[in-house]
Amino acid sequence: MTKNKIIKSSNISNKDLNGWVNNHAIIIENGKISNVINQEGIPELSSYEIIDFGESYAIPGIIETHAHLQFSATHDAYEIYFNEDEDQRYERAIKNAEKSLLSGVTSIRDLGSPNNLIFPLKKDIDEGIKRGPNIFPTGTPITIKDGHCWFFGSIAHNSSEIFKVIDNQLNLGATHIKIMASGGNFTPSSNPRISQYSYETIQETVNYCNSNGTYLCAHTLSRNSTIQCIESGVQNIIHGRWFDESTDKAYSFDKDYSKMIVDKGIYVDSTISKHLLEYESELKGEKQRPSNPNVNSEPSYESIINIFRYLDLEGVKIIGALDMGMSKADFNKAVASAWAHVEWLGFDHWKAIRSITITNAEAMRIEKSKGLISEGYDADMVFFKNDPSKNIRNLVFDPQHVIKGGEVIF
Ligand SMILES: [Zn+2]
To answer: What spacing in Å lies between the alpha carbon of 15 and ligand 1's midpoint?
Structure first.
């Protein structure tokens, strides 16, 4: 049990996460925030441990919605995965988890890992044996034979097979279900240009998740699968790309679907921050991941940016999502989603900060306990030296302090 604490900071993000309150203190009791008060109001004889973080900028602990903890985040992540045994994968995953925590990530949603890795890892962190963020696991994603991530996925081709997988994942402790609605760039045997399932199967999967008190995250790169996911009301659309079936074209984006995304309350994970990191890495001349053999014509960064700019302007809720573990998307770089949202999509700074905290909490259905520095919320927070509402790159990979569940990590 961690001791009750009072944390002083010159700048603490307010309840609406759109400005600072100055010279306040966060009161932490039993791992939760019980109040945020003016520093002048702190009682002198206090039984609480008082910690003064002085000049600092405190925001809620970062919530990363898209990670694969077992991968290396290098251009050769695919080969490395196949060369490692189960113990090595676990060691890598736990190091990645710790790295993310030290960068200010206090909650992390895993969107696809082997069951025998992610559930024991979560248990080890929850029990305090290992150090890492709160893990929200899905375990094995649902995919088809030779489809995207078949090598650690659960193979299921029709609704009844899918329902069996969902039952199993929920029994293991999955907080959400992941389905690969199209092929993926990472898996050479899969085709990102085509749907892996019928519309009816996706719709029945959404319905089954709803009736079991969970929600569906769907990886989708092809135009057809993205439309299937929008029409069937998949709660979190992952990537949401528009690859045409023809290899002559890159994307065939259909603007008319933006209204349906808004009306159905779908959250969209753009993974645009991964592209920002790839772009900056290319400028340095570093080695990049190989292209998927089924893709041929790759989209430009500009065309990807334009789609998500348009969707944002139409009111679509875009969540911060790095796709941690993929090439260049290292586990200490969750803040790059806020950078990309400001620099590439034109978000204002506070909206970008919300897009790595409370907006992500909403997408993950944990917004009542995580994503704000406010009374009743879990005491997860991160402190930066310089003001991120002035310059979004003040969200650096190495913050000054991190607190998770009331425990001062450093
Ligand atoms: Zn992913």
So the answer is: 31
Spatial contact of 364 and 109, defined as CB atoms under 8 Å apart: yes
How many angstroms separate the alpha carbon of residue 32 from the centre of ligand 1?
A: 31
Give the C-alpha separation, 377 to 4, whole Å. 15
Q: Which residues surround ligand 1, an ion (CB under 5 A)?
A: 111, 323
Q: What is the pLDDT of residue 294?
A: 87
Within the chain, all domains assigned CATH 2.30.40.10 are found at 5-59+373-408
| Distance of CA 217 from the midpoint of ligand 1 (Å) | 10
Residue 271, pLDDT above cutoff 90: yes
Checking if the pLDDT of 45 tops 80, the result is no
| Ligand 1 center to 30 CA (angstroms) | 34
Would you state the pLDDT for residue 2? 66
CA of 94 to the centre of ligand 1 (A): 18
Q: What CATH number does domain 5-59+373-408 carry, 3.40.640.10, 3.50.30.30, 3.30.390.50, 2.30.40.10?
A: 2.30.40.10
End-to-end CA distance of the chain: 17
What is the third-level CATH fold of 62-363? TIM Barrel (3.20.20)
Residue 251's φ and ψ, nearest 5 degrees, are -105, 150
Three-state secondary structure call for residue 152: coil
User: 46 pLDDT exceeds 80?
Assistant: no
What tokens were used for 383? Answer: 């402190």
Please give the distance, rounded to the nearest whole angstrom, from the Cα atom of residue 265 to the centre of ligand 1.
Answer: 21
Q: How far is the CA of 111 from the centre of ligand 1 (A)?
A: 6
- Cα–Cα distance between 120 and 126 in angstroms, integer? 10
Ligand 1 center from residue 140 Cα (angstroms):
12
Mean pLDDT, rounded, of the chain: 96
pLDDT of residue 346: 98
What is the distance in A from the centroid of ligand 1 to the CA of 66?
6
Cα 216 to ligand 1 centre (Å): 14
Give the pTM: 0.97
Express each pLDDT in 2-29 by its tens digit. Answer: 679 999 999 999 999 999 999 999 999 9
What amino acid occupies position 19?
G
